[in-house]
Amino acid sequence: MVHAIRIHEHGGPEVLRWDEIEVGEPGSGQVRIRQTAVGLNYIDTYHRSGAYKLPDLPAVIGMAGTGVVEALGPDVTTLKVGDRVGYAMSIGAYAESRLIAADRLVPLPSWLDEQATAATLLQGLTAQYLLRSTHVVQPGDTILVQAAAGGVGLLLCSWARHLGATVIGTVGSAEKAELAKAHGCHHTIDYTRENFVTRVKDLTDGQGVPVVYDGVGKTTFLDGLDCLRPRGLMVLFGAASGAPAPLDLGLLAAKGSLYVTRPTLATYTAKREDLMASAADLFDAVKNGGVTFTVNQRFALKDTAEAHRALEARATTGSTVLVP
């Protein structure tokens, strides 16, 4: 028997329970991994609260982790016992050991730290598709990153700068401004003290930016549209402050024939070949210095409720790892 964090009902952090579970043997297409680290991501709070409904309870939540392969299903040929692996977007991560589909696992290069990878992999793959597929950032672009000191935000800042873009980022404090700058953000805007639309227009000589990356949602979405230049793209990839109100599509015409997309990592990595290509691009960026995998907070897995409280209070910066 091993332990896992499970929810028996939806609600606040108090519904997270440290339960004993039985993992069992891997079936067709599966492996069993002993987890070495688990990532904390905002999507976990949506599963816990019921904002994203789960089909069956009780359930182990969590979407990303790293571990070592312990056992193989009968038809698995791409991995072997002892391999170091990582994954993202596979629910069931908050556990000491788990079963998982082999085709969702990414072999880890020997030089990658497992805790930092677990904390950052989902966010890193998110940054990869946002910068390299949703809008292909080019040298000379100026982009806006909402919540630039968050986990995805810091990766977007550092990677976009490495790609030759000028990065404007919104933050909620002077401390977070310094953190964003240390990760490549050229211009920070403290939204508690400044109007970010006015500042973006000032920084772009009134032109606006070609793309806004927004993982905040309700409190930033509409104003973010006013930061775009004509035919610009609003990329809403999260909703930390809640979902935006329904959008009158006429606004997109009135504000300059704008585009809006609501992408997900699950879609961009649904095919095995896309997952592997995205991971390879991300790991290459880490190796070449464009992206840094770091851990800013560590919690014991059994203390996941405390980690959720800190995340939802915006008391964390960058990436957080849960250690079994």
TrEMBL record:
Top-level taxon of origin: Bacteria
In its UniProt record, a GO molecular function of this protein is: NADPH binding
Q: Which UniProt keywords apply?
A: NADP, Oxidoreductase
- State a GO cellular component annotated for this protein: cytosol
The record's Gene3D superfamilies line, in alphabetical order, gives: Medium-chain alcohol dehydrogenases, catalytic domain, NAD(P)-binding Rossmann-like Domain
InterPro entries on file: ADH-like_C (IPR013149), ADH-like_N (IPR013154), ER (IPR020843), GroES-like_sf (IPR011032), NAD(P)-bd_dom_sf (IPR036291), QOR-like (IPR047618)
Q: What is its EC number?
A: 1.6.5.5
Per the database record, which ranges form the Enoyl reductase (ER) domain?
11-322
Which PANTHER family does this chain map to?
QUINONE OXIDOREDUCTASE PIG3-RELATED (PTHR48106), QUINONE OXIDOREDUCTASE-RELATED (PTHR48106:SF13)
Name of the protein? Quinone oxidoreductase (NADPH:quinone reductase)
Q: Which organism is it from?
A: Azospirillum lipoferum (strain 4B)
